[in-house]
Amino acid sequence: MPMVTIRDVALKAGVSKTTVSHALSGRRPVAEETRARIARAIDELGYQPNSTAQSLATRRTGILGMVYPLPELGGSDLAAVEFIFSAADRMASAGYKFLLLTTAYEDTQELLKVVRGGHVDGLILMEIRLADERVRMLREEGFPFVMIGRCRSNAGLDYVDIDASSAIYEGTKHLIGLGHKRIAFIGISPWDFGYTQRGLLGYKKALRDAGLSYDNILVRACPYREGQGRKLIKELLGASRPFSAVITCGDLTAAEITGALREEGVKVPDDMSVISFGNSPLCTFTIPPLTALTTRAREMSEIAVDMLIRKLRGESLKRHQVLLRPELVIRGTTGPAPHDVAYQAVQ
∠ CA(80), CA(84), CA(85), 5° rounding? Predict the structure, then answer.
């Protein structure tokens, strides 16, 4: 059964969510008759008040949380490690303890229990989807949070993000400049992750600006788990569409692609070029090292933590929506297009 929210109480009592919040916290005066209506609504609905909201003015845990659904991403995401450790370091330097919440994306009720249980003072929210139910829930609860990433609509939200559209645009343009005309784009599934959707827009724009045709057979979404990149590139090689380059939204996927290409006798970068959007330490471990677009993970985590702490202290934010520009780091997996224009596996 869905958990009763502060919005439900407000509707039942015929008042605004803000009035309910003031009645619970005692931070603002509320008329006695209104307070009584709210109390009746709480009793009838069985609402469990958010203990953090009730005592926000007097009690702090000194703990900040990061919500990163690692089970969804798999266990080999070095970019996740960089985000997590950077946030933990920044919180420690500001005198806060760090709590990592690996709650699955769909499990909003568990996240709601953490919020209402008063276990943390604020949250950094990761892996943002275009229509993110966690964001809706946290806003409804009036709980302090900052996103690393963006939704489709971000009015009134605080976030820091990398410009994925510009990143994939620049990466695709780099490949086109090397003579590649048939380029595969591999996003991270599900498709409603913000950076995958925005990356696809950048990919399409780069093709359009260069007068190249878009082929949806060369556009795929890959679960960010071990083995999936290897499986997908072999499917693409066996398809009826030749191509000579791949740009992907994830270092693990890109690393598996280069390994699978080597197994298939496809030389990187002589026969096939590969670019990753991530630039985690994994990029320097592959053979050859991966050309990559930076996500600026450390910088994003540090900015997000600083924004959250300023919010908790009641300080105004100089910028509450920060969009960072990516950088292209050229290594060994990109080179001129082969003379035969595009590689296609022998059937």
Answer: 120
